[in-house]
Write a structure and sequence with these properties.
Serine Threonine Protein Phosphatase 5, Tetratricopeptide repeat; disordered N terminus; zinc; four-stranded antiparallel β-sheet; 32 strands; about 20% strand
């Protein structure tokens, strides 16, 4: 029996999770399970006729007159034998302590589940409905209503007696009732009425739309969404009614409340039950379909729809067809929809089955995503709601996602996801690496392996390196560069690379990688040798970083051949580690490299390599003549005779001219310029530099029979030699190019000199006059004489102590003061001067300067 039940439950889940379109990609909003345990036992022998739901328990009525109290799992907790015939309705108050039951034989019972109070009455007609006051537990609310051919209100008086009153009659059987707060809503054959129990007045009547349907076969479904909102479902029509307070000015003889229909629309199927879900509705529908073979209508599976009400229509959110037991034999009146407001649970009740519908939680959402193989979305949903999910683990979803990607062949994506999913779990990392190895995809996972926190076993990294070494030298080199050297056994990998080099000894990628491995292993000498062989740019960085200067003393030529500029800079920056002498000796057989080194040394410091300046003359002459003359000019340690000899041997005229002039042989130098270079401008420039009259004389004598030279002299010597000396020596009849222009230039230069002299004279006169006026103004000013001044001769105060006595004081422009009697008497024709200033040969105002000092 249990196996059969499991099969039925599985069948229900398969059928209810789908809409009519079996392969729809839309996720269902609800999940379903069959209420089993005690319910299964009950419905094997009996049939469900009604049910009501409380937050704590369920109450189920059957066709054989039994009422069962069940827990939420369907286990029987209590059983009541109420009647031998069908139980029509069960009602519970909000506390769940009192229950009302009515049956087809007219019996009505209201009793306390935990107390002894009880009402028992048998009527002469079937009682279809019963509803106890929601607050029946209160002594002031001991009320309930029953309905058969009329609606009766029972109230307990102060004498503990029950009295009844008719609320309504005459419109057929009362078939549905719902009590919420102080409002009672019921339905009869004509429509729906709402009664205010506190005001004892009926508020409204909502007529039935489709009068063609039998009310006993297609009963009305009522549901209170809240204390003022009633939802009515009848046939295929749904109305949402709102109870509102009437304004005082509109009352007159009207009830204080009225009902407004805020939404009204038609559905596709017949309504068997209604329930609210937030601002949406859950609708249980009875479905009839037309058979293709017999062209007759048959009962199809009932549907549970979630719809969004609009003012005049609705929008379907989800729709599920339910496979309940015996649905082929059921009618619209056989289905009921009950709900638990606190937990959003919906109970679909049929004679042979009770199905529970629940809102899907995050675990259900993840289940659906995994079923649809939407692993990435499932993983994201689990991460967002990790505190709320109970049945799933992020890691399990992630591992399933990796497996799915690998099965699909997306190895790169799978490897990339490992970083996020596996995190710091080394065991999982190693397990996944071996999985990639089994399918030959170690290369895919290599870029994503952890390198720090966590670190895997060295064997894992070595396994991947061997994989690359067998098929991809470039990839192998990349990993060696990127991975820290302590991840794997360096000696094992070095040996593997050396084995491969035996087959391909000139492979630059392997050689470079081997050098890097030697570097990780601190075997710098071997690494340096490989770098130099490969002429690799990192060789200088390696030397600097690991201070390998002792290892390169015999490799200076190799370094210079590779990159002479960097090599020289490095050698000069580290003279304390490799001496200049050692470098020069190593480069003895490579004079061109020796020159590069010594030239840069000379540029840095003219005196450091002074012992090699004689050698540098030959090196410059051989390899770098443009820098020879600057070297000769800047060097103070160069042997001039040796330099002159070399320059004369090689016929370096400019250098020879410089050396001759530097050695004092200016006439020979000038002669060489004129005879060898034939450059009058350079000769004139040289004569200007030497500023020697004899040189100018030699230049004139040499040029006197050479018209081009005469033109050059006429154009340039005007400011150094009197042009008349040259002009007088020019032979009559000699044709001189541009003579006229040269003479005009001489005259212009002369005029310019005259103008300059006159300008200077004007400036001097103006300055002299300005200074004279300034001196005159200064000397005309008064001089303060007070008690602090002394006579410069006798050194006594300049002013007498008795001011009444006459006295004479002489004050010079130099601010020295004397008593008149202390000065020598001047001669008849001589002026009187300050003794101090005359003695020191100083001018006026010098005393002021002394005071300032």
């Amino acid at each position: 029996m249990e196996e059969a039940e499991e099969q039925e439950t599985g069948s229900l889940e398969e059928s209810t999770d789908e809409s009519e379109e079996e392969e729809s990609e839309e996720e269902p909003k609800l999940k379903y399970e069959r209420l089993s345990n005690g319910v299964t036992e009950i419905l094997q022998k009996d049939a469900a006729s009604c049910m009501t739901v409380h937050d704590k328990f369920l109450a189920l009525g059957t066709h054989y007159g039994k009422v069962y109290l069940l827990d939420v799992q369907g286990n029987i907790t209590q059983k009541f034998d109420v009647s031998p015939v069908k139980i029509n309705q069960i009602s519970l108050d909000e506390s769940g302590e009192h229950m009302g039951v009515c049956s087809e034989d007219g019996k009505v019972q209201v009793f306390g589940l935990y107390s002894g109070e009880e009402f028992h009455e048998t009527f002469d007609c079937p009682i279809k409905i019963i509803a106890v006051h929601p607050h029946f537990v209160r002594s002031s609310c001991k009320q309930f209503v029953t309905g058969g051919k009329k609606l009766l209100l029972f109230e307990r008086s102060w004498m503990n007696r029950w009295k009844s009153s008719v609320l309504h009659e005459g419109e057929g059987n009362i078939r549905s009732v719902k009590w919420r707060s102080h409002l009672i809503a019921w339905a009869n054959n004509m429509g729906v009425k709402i009664f205010d129990i506190t005001l004892k007045q009926r508020i409204t009547n909502v007529p039935r739309d489709d009068v063609s349907l039998r009310p006993d076969m297609y009963p009305c479904s009522l549901c209170w969404k809240d204390s003022v909102t009633l939802i009515i479902g009848w046939g295929t029509s749904i109305k949402i009614c709102s109870v509102k307070e009437r304004h005082a000015s509109e009352m007159r003889d009207l009830p204080s409340r009225y009902v407004e229909i805020v939404s009204q629309f038609e559905t596709e199927f017949y309504i068997s039950g209604l329930a609210p879900l937030c601002d949406q509705l859950v609708v249980l529908s009875y479905v009839k379909e037309l058979s293709d073979k017999t062209e007759r209508e048959y009962c199809a599976r009932p549907r549970l729809d979630i719809i969004q009400p609009l003012p005049e229509t609705c929008e379907e959110i989800s729709s599920d067809a339910l496979t309940v037991r015996g649905f082929q034999e059921n009618e619209c009146r056989d289905y009921h929809l009950e709900f638990s407001e606190g937990e959003s649970l919906f109970y679909i009740v049929s004679p042979r089955d009770v199905v529970v519908a629940k809102e899907r939680d995050q675990d259900d959402h993840i289940d659906w995503l995994l079923e649809k193989k939407k692993y990435e979305e499932a993983l994201m949903a689990a991460e967002i709601s990790q505190r709320n999910i109970k049945r799933h683990k992020i890691l399990d979803i992630g591992l399933a996602y990796i497996n799915h990607l690998m099965e699909r062949g997306d190895y790169d994506i799978a490897a990339r996801k490992c970083q996020k999913i596996l995190g710091k779990n080394t065991a999982l990392w190693e397990y996944e690496v071996y999985k990639f190895k089994e399918i030959g995809q170690l290369k895919a996972i290599s870029p994503y392996l952890p390198r720090r926190d966590p670190v895997l076993k060295p064997l894992i990294y070595e396994m991947i390196l061997h994989e690359f070494l067998e098929s991809d030298y470039e990839g192998f080199a990349t990993l060696i560069r990127e991975w820290p050297g302590d991840l794997y056994n360096n000696s094992v990998i070095v040996q593997a690379v050396r084995d491969h080099l035996k087959k391909d000894s000139q492979n630059k990628t392997l050689l470079k990688t081997l050098a890097e491995l030697y570097t990780y292993d601190k075997n710098y000498s071997n690494a340096l040798e490989i770098y130099l062989t490969l002429r690799h740019k990192d060789v200088f960085q390696l030397i600097h970083k690991h201070n390998l200067f002792s290892s390169i003393k015999d490799k200076i030529v190799l370094l210079m051949d590779f990159d002479s500029e960097k090599a020289v800079d490095m050698l000069l920056d580290n003279e304390d580690k490799i001496s200049i002498k050692k470098v020069v000796e190593e480069l003895e057989d490579r004079p061109e490299l020796q020159h590069v080194y010594l030239h840069k040394l000379f540029k840095r410091d003219h005196h450091k390599g002074q012992c090699y300046h004689e050698k540098q003359i030959s090196l410059y002459a051989e390899y770098d003549r443009p820098n020879l003359l600057p070297f000769l000019r800047d060097s103070t340690h160069c042997p001039l005779e040796k330099a002159l000899e070399i320059c004369q041997q090689r016929n370096f005229v400019e250098e020879t001219v410089y050396l001759l002039s530097r050695m004092g042989n200016s006439r020979s130098a000038l002669k060489m310029i004129m005879e060898e270079l034939h450059d009058v401008d350079k000769a004139i420039e040289f004569a200007k530099e030497q500023d020697d009259g004899e040189l100018w004389e030699d230049l004139i004598l040499y040029s006197i029979d050479k018209p081009p030279f005469i033109t050059g002299l006429l154009n340039n010597i005007g400011t150094h030699v009197d042009p008349i000396l040259l002009i007088h020596r020019i032979k009559e009849g000699m044709e001189i190019p541009n003579l006229r222009d040269s003479l005009v230039k001489i005259l212009q230069d002369y005029n310019l000199q005259i103008l300059l002299r006159e300008g200077c004279k004007k400036i001097l006169v103006a300055d002299s006059l300005s200074l004279l006026k300034k001196m005159h103004r200064t000397q005309m000013k008064g001089v303060l004489v007070d008690e602090e001044n002394i006579c410069e001769s006798c050194l006594s105060p300049i002013l007498p102590s008795d001011a009444a006595k006459p006295f004479s004081v002489v004050v010079f422009h130099c601010r020295h003061m004397f008593h008149k009697e202390c000065l020598p008497v001047p001669g008849v024709n001589s002026a009187q001067y300050c003794n101090i200033c005359s003695a020191k040969n100083r001018g006026p105002g010098s005393a002021i300067l002394e005071m300032k000092k």
